[in-house]
Specification:
The protein contains 11 helices and 10 strands. With about 375 residues, the protein is α+β, with helices and mostly antiparallel strands. The protein has 3 domains: about 110 residues, Butyryl-Coa Dehydrogenase, subunit A, domain 1 (Orthogonal Bundle), CATH 1.10.540.10; about 110 residues, Butyryl-CoA Dehydrogenase, subunit A, domain 2 (Beta Barrel); about 150 residues, Butyryl-CoA Dehydrogenase, subunit A, domain 3 (Up-down Bundle), CATH 1.20.140. The protein binds flavin-adenine dinucleotide (FAD).
């Protein structure tokens, strides 16, 4: 049986996430835009509101609520601030990689702190050699005197300068066919967060580079089996990572719809609101149709995932659709605003800039098509 309704618990969480976003995050959005910096207590606030605890099992201090609830929470937070949702989504990806592949000891050590915001995570896979080709990764590891030593540089890393718990993919120095994933901590010797990016959008979401120089990692911080790191990182990104980006895209899309409806009802031309003009009504209809379709695709994938089924292909379809649709929605919302759509005091200009940044993270639209075509042709 197909049930398209959210549960009461999911509806309640949406309400709580919306209230959190509107009361705690909204007052800081303008400052984040102007300074490009996240507001200091963001991690603490996300932790206190239990936003980081959603997928963490109860035995490790989490809520054990699953991916649909997290997509709902991200949608509500992105509706107010995609930058904040992006930080939360990559933090959540680090958490999910540990849930999926961590040992009991690793879960006990890291998850309770990650649930409360005492710790905050990132996932570092991409390197200057190209994010679409993770096998080109040149960050290396070797085993030495009972620990691992990592060397290399990761770029475009969300939470690069604020995360204290990093899930990092590296290549075996002695066997270039083998990759492993490690849990690193900021204060382990040999770590530096270096260049910080200035992005066109999602300003206030920290993105930058991290460098590892002879970075010593205890043997027990290997995450998943040695030599299987590509599977560890890609499994998490293809499901949790893409689920997160879908939530971010849906929230931005909804913000575009709301801003368009508000402006179209308020802007008077020819003696009546422009919402009475059919050309503007049709733009609003297009935005709404894409949002409805994106939600069906996104929440179908998360529902499968919550049932314990593999949902990588469904997530790829939804990630492609929702991130592309959010870009279309932002462009149409700006068009509806006429000249005001070019003026920074209107949030729609931020939506246009933010929509450009949605695409690459967790795999570009081209890569989603590679996955979907493989699925269709199999
Ligand atoms: C805001 C932001 C946050 C990010 N956060 C993180 C993070 O936290 N951790 C992390 O590890 N990475 C992160 N990334 C990196 C992201 O995963 C990469 O940008 C993405 O994988 C693309 O890699 P690239 O930028 O090197 O582009 P490239 O891989 O160099 O791609 C260049 C172009 O080639 C196309 N292309 C590549 N392969 C194919 C193919 N097989 N067929 C057709 N076309 C192809 C791409 O679609 C693109 O148009 C982030 C990126 C952004 C923008």
């Amino acid at each position: 049986m197909i049930d398209f309704t959210f549960t009461e618990e999911q509806d309640l969480f949406r309400k709580a996430a919306r209230e959190f976003a509107e009361t705690k995050i909204a007052p800081h959005v303008q400052d984040m835009e102007e300074t490009g910096r996240s507001w200091d207590p963001v991690i603490k606030e996300l932790g206190e509101a239990e936003m980081m605890a959603i997928t963490i099992p109860e035995e490790y201090g989490g809520l054990g609520l699953g991916y649909t609830v997290r997509m709902i929470a991200l949608e509500e937070i992105a509706r107010v601030s995609v930058a904040t949702a992006m930080m939360m989504q990559v933090g959540g990806l680090g958490i999910d990689t540990i849930i999926l592949f961590g040992t009991d000891e690793q879960k006990e050590k890291y998850l309770p702190g990650l649930a409360t915001g005492e710790r905050f995570a990132t996932v570092a896979v991409t390197e200057p050699s190209g994010g679409s080709d993770p096998k080109g990764c040149s960050t290396s590891y070797k085993k030495q005197n009972g620990h691992y030593v990592l060397n290399g540089r990761k770029c475009f890393i969300t939470n690069s300068h604020i995360a204290d718990t990093q899930v990092v993919l590296a290549n075996n120095e002695d066997d270039r066919e083998a990759y492993s994933t490690f849990i690193l901590e900021k204060d382990m010797e040999g770590f530096e967060a270096t260049h910080e990016e200035h992005k066109v959008g999602m300003r206030g979401c920290n993105t930058g580079e991290i460098e590892m120089k002879d970075r010593k990692v205890p043997a027990e911080n290997l995450l998943g089996p040695e030599g299987k790191g590509m599977r560890v990182s890609m499994t998490a990104i293809s499901e949790s990572g893409r689920a997160g980006m879908i939530g971010c895209a849906l929230g931005l899309h909804n913000a575009c719809l709301e801003a368009s409806v508000k402006f179209a009802n308020e802007r008077i031309l020819y003696g009546r609101p422009i919402s009475k003009l059919q050309a503007q009504q049709f733009k609003i209809a297009d935005i709404k149709i894409d949002l409805e379709a994106g939600r069906l695709l996104g929440y179908r994938a998360s529902a499968l995932h919550d049932k314990g089924e593999r949902a990588g292909n469904e997530y790829a379809v939804a990630k492609y659709f929702t991130t592309e649709a959010a870009q279309r929605a932002a462009k149409m919302a700006a068009d509806i605003h006429g000249g005001y759509g070019c003026m920074e005091e209107y949030p729609v200009t931020r939506y246009v800039r933010d929509s450009f940044v949605l695409g690459p993270s967790a795999g570009t639209s081209d890569i989603m098509k590679v996955i979907v075509s493989r699925w269709a042709l199999s």
